[in-house]
TrEMBL record:
Cytoplasm recorded as keyword: no
Protein name: Response regulator receiver domain-containing protein
Sites bearing 4-aspartylphosphate, chain numbering: 63
Domain Response regulatory positions: 6-128
């Protein structure tokens, strides 16, 4: 399994963030984390990283339901940033709404839609 260099978690739930980081550490999933509590903060920081040609996260775990900017607002703006470096996005949410699942499929950057909580097995699939 290939270890991820930087994993980015965009989620406003501190319990989910804590638990996900813990599982990632136990799985030896990644070297480091970036954590944002809303889509707008994540967008602004990731846009600056892209513009300055700094190291981007290899993987983004994106929640849909957050304050300020939700996951959809983040995605709609993030895909507008010119970037030729690969970033894999997984939507990790509590939403089981079929409309959300379908909408996620319309974004090329979204690799999968996973309903919380995330498991060790799902993390291992991401590392392949």
């Amino acid at each position: 399994m290939k270890k991820i260099d930087i994993a980015c978690i965009i989620d406003d739930d501190p319990i989910f963030v804590f638990g996900t980081k813990k599982i990632m550490q136990l799985a030896n999933f990644c070297e480091s984390f970036m954590v944002f509590h809303n889509g707008k903060d994540a967008y602004e920081k990731l846009k600056a990283i892209i513009i300055n040609e700094e190291k981007l996260p290899d993987l983004i775990l994106l929640d849909l339901n957050m304050p300020i900017w939700d996951g959809w607002e983040f995605l709609d703006e993030f895909i507008k940033i010119p970037n030729d470096r690969p970033v894999t996005i997984y939507i990790i949410t509590s939403s089981v709404d079929p409309a959300d699942v379908e909408k996620a499929k319309s974004y090329d950057l979204v690799s999968n839609y996973i309903v919380k909580p995330i498991t060790m097995e799902e993390l291992k699939k991401m590392m392949v």
